[in-house]
Amino acid sequence: MTTQNALLDRIDAKTMLDQTLDWASVNSGTANLEGLAVMADKLSSAFSVLPGEVELVEPAPVSAISADGTEFEKPHGRHLVLRVRPEAARRVVLTGHMDTVYPVDHPFQENSWLDDETVNGPGTADMKGGLCVILHALRAFEASGNADRLGYDVMINSDEETGSLASRPLIEKLAQGKYAALTYEPSARPDGTLAHARGGTGNYSITLRGQSAHAGRNPQDGRNAIVAASDLVMRIVELAKDDITINPAKIEGGAANNVVPDLAILRFNIRPKSTHAMERFDGELAPILAAIEADHEIAIHRHGGVTRPPKPVDDRAQKLFDLVKSCGAELGQTIGWQPTGGVCDGNNIASCGVPVVDTMGVRGGAIHSPDEYMIVPSLAERAALSALVLEKLANGDPL
Ligand SMILES: [Zn+2]
To answer: 388: which residues sit within 8 A by CB, 6+ positions away?
Structure first.
């Protein structure tokens, strides 16, 4: 029997589709804690067919800045962790997310068939189909008779779509000491192309507090926070270079037309392409904030920073890409890759020094839109691919 047939025999495409459609029918927008709890429940029972214990881990505390400048704690759902053979010499981590970008009141809530092989549905590609690929790849791997040498952790977080702030410590803990990592974002293109190097991203909220005064009677006594925020915008956009983009996104605060405003909150995003660019920006921002404080006689509070460091592809990571490609070839699948501007948990795993391929999930497209679709045969196809990669990681030459 060929490798392909033996693997495909162990993968139940019908069950995969039923599970994916069932999971996609549960709204699990990142802020929908009830929906996330339902998903965590469904996933816990689905993943309990594997060896090891499923555990639900509390989210790490995360704060944000409200439109009135106060810091508040943002609630999050729990994350799922499964540990199997923790004593194994080679251990890998497989990660996915149970949240989606669609809030509970979003009009896109239902699955529908576009044709015999394509389903349009919320989170089908990103990434409930991918979660199903993890489960069925591991089932096939466990049934292969070659699983003993490889231990693994599965981590499914509840907040990937908002930057994994409540799961980042967990991801970093689970990545420690791992031989390799696989993350189940959908392929970068519908033909199965993987995402290769990724840039990073950071989000900042800068709160500027001045002094209010009457705009006509004593404006000289005021310290205008909107003017200071505008000056800040003009100075940070100067920091954009070939290796980093800076997007001032919003200024909140302000006051009535006859009042010198004492509050402004500037929110901006940065996209560093390299670790060097990320660190350089951080070094340049601090003196600019100090200068704005001094020049405008206002107080500044800085919140946020880089949440996803850039993900270059080093030699060991490239070996993992090559391994995925050769496994694809054994299964008759052509696997290529391309760099992308998008970010995901693969960024955070790579920053722990662990080789990662982060688009091992289904083939599909139009993610983060009501046109999101999954190519149904890719469920079994990608599960076979991952199962074979796991067998080679267990028994092949070191990366
Ligand atoms: Zn995703």
So the answer is: 3, 7, 327, 330, 331
Residue 97 Cα to ligand 1 midpoint, Å, equals 7
How many A from CA of 132 to the centre of ligand 1? 13
End-to-end CA distance of the chain: 28
* Structure-token pair, residue 57: 């881990």
- Residue given tokens 């907040």 in the structure block: 159
Omega into 155 within 30° of 0, i.e. cis?
no
* Residue 324 CB coordination number (10 Å): 23
Is the pLDDT confidence value at 1 over 80?
no
Of the candidates 171, 97, 102, 109, which has an alpha carbon nearest to the alpha carbon of residue 347? Answer: 171
Burial class (CB in 10 A: 0-12, 13-18, 19+), 108: middle
pLDDT digit string, tens, across residues 42-52: 999 999 999 99
Q: Ligand 1 center to residue 343 CA distance, Å? A: 9
Residue 73, pLDDT > 80, answer yes
Distance from the Cα of residue 139 to its chain's centroid: 25
Q: How far is CA 315 from the centre of its chain?
A: 23
Quick count: other Cβ atoms within 10 Å of Cβ 231? 17
Hey, what's the torsion of the CAs at 59, 61, 66, 71, to 10 degrees?
A: 170
Between CA 159 and CA 157 the distance in angstroms is: 6
pLDDT by residue (tens digit) across 118-172?
Answer: 999 999 999 999 999 999 999 999 999 889 999 999 999 999 999 999 999 999 9
How far is the C-alpha of 113 from the C-alpha of 123, rounded, in Å? 14
CA–centroid distance, residue 256 to ligand 1 (Å): 42
Would you tell me how many other CB atoms lie within 10 Å of the CB of residue 163? 20
Which of 155, 160, 255, 172 lies closest to 210, judged by CA?
255
Alpha carbon distance 213, 138 (integer Å): 65
Tell me if the pTM is above 0.90.
Answer: yes
pLDDT of residue 386: 98
Whole-number Å distance, alpha carbon 106 to ligand 1 midpoint, is 18
Residue 4 has pLDDT above 70, yes or no: no
